[in-house]
Specification:
With about 325 residues, the protein is α/β, with parallel strands linked by helices. The chain contains eight helices and 17 strands. It has two domains: about 200 residues, Formyl transferase, N-terminal domain (Rossmann fold, 3-Layer(aba) Sandwich); about 90 residues, Formyl transferase, C-terminal domain (Methionyl-tRNA Fmet Formyltransferase, Chain A, domain 2), CATH 3.10.25.10. The chain is elongated, with a radius of gyration of 22 Å.
Length: about 325
């Protein structure tokens, strides 16, 4: 079987590796363009790295629907199937209609819950104990196509990185099980119930900002959901502080949201809209990530100090 693969991050690379291991012919991998990292060094997507390692041709359209040459190339390849996993772009009908077995998506949620661009982050942010993978046949709508197979996974207390790793493994295995069923006609296609649908939209940098007016529980989940990007962040004395690890403390606030309640040798406690947050790891602007203990040795914190808006409160 000839399969074109479309995907970008590490989550998608697991599925691509599985297809390679299973011996499928992969004439082309489509991924997002390289981006500039620190010191203008170009950063390749995990999918592109893997494709290059295996000598697979890659394409990197800025917008696939506005790339007639790539769409023509896909027509020339005439793949039996296109497999998509966290590609980051919506496929136009002109692409969806190319493969004889359709375009198949490895989606990081139990559809119809959490359609959209950030299902794994949303599952963490909303406090789900369980999420999973849905293999679906792609349609023109946003994750509205028929479901083919599902796999549920325990994600309780996990951060986005951990959830992504769990679901990437599950997705790769489920994909390998499902493709033969699609090919031999035994796959069962289930229409989604739109009334049960929820959405997880694109994440912006400002989504990570917190002034601690929310509950400690919500902010702790935000830290876990946005641990890779954009991070949960606030400002202290005009400097940005990103938070990477914290615990919810079931205590009544003893000050305004964002104020430091108390400190100990390994952590500090911030008053929230309800409850307190015990911070264990963070990153001060221009510095490396470090434990709260190391942070306080270089930046003294006292009860009453306040985290909040960049330009003062």
């Amino acid at each position: 079987m000839k399969i074109v693969f479309m995907g970008t991050p590490a989550f998608a690379a697991k599925s691509l590796q599985k297809l390679i291991d299973e011996g499928y012919e992969i004439p082309l991998v489509v991924t997002q363009p390289d981006r500039k990292g620190n010191r203008n060094k170009m950063v390749l997507s995990e999918v592109r790295k893997l494709a290059l390692e295996h000598g697979i041709e890659t394409a990197q359209p800025v917008r696939i629907k506005r790339d007639p040459e790539l769409i023509e190339r896909l027509g020339e390849i005439a793949p039996d199937m296109i497999v998509v996993a966290a590609f980051g772009q919506i496929l136009p009908k002109s692409v969806l209609d190319i493969p004889r077995l359709g375009c198949i998506n490895v989606h990081g949620s139990l559809l119809p819950k959490l359609r959209g661009a950030s299902p794994m982050q949303a599952a963490v942010l909303e406090g789900f104990d369980e999420s999973g993978i849905t293999i679906m046949r792609m349609a023109e709508g946003l994750d509205t196509g028929d479901m083919i197979s599902k796999c549920a996974c325990d994600i309780k207390g996990k951060n986005f990185t951990e959830v992504s790793e769990i679901l990437a493994e599950a997705g790769a295995e489920l994909l390998a099980q499902t493709i033969p069923q699609i090919a031999d006609g035994t796959a069962v296609y289930e229409v989604q119930n739109d009334e049960e649908a929820t959405y997880a939209g694109m994440i912006s940098k400002t989504d990570g900002y917190t002034d601690f007016s929310e509950s400690a529980e919500r902010i702790e989940r935000k830290i876990r959901a946005f641990i890779e990007w954009p991070a949960c962040y606030s400002y202290l004395d005009g400097q940005q502080v990103k938070f990477y690890k914290a615990e919810v403390i079931d205590e009544e606030p003893d000050g305004e949201p964002g104020t430091v309640s108390r400190t100990d040798k390994k952590s500090y406690y911030i008053n929230c809209g309800s409850g307190k947050l015990r911070v264990l790891e963070q990153q001060l602007q221009g510095k490396k990530r470090m434990s709260a203990g190391d942070f306080m040795r270089g930046h003294k914190l006292s009860a009453g100090d306040r985290f909040g808006a960049e330009e003062g409160l």
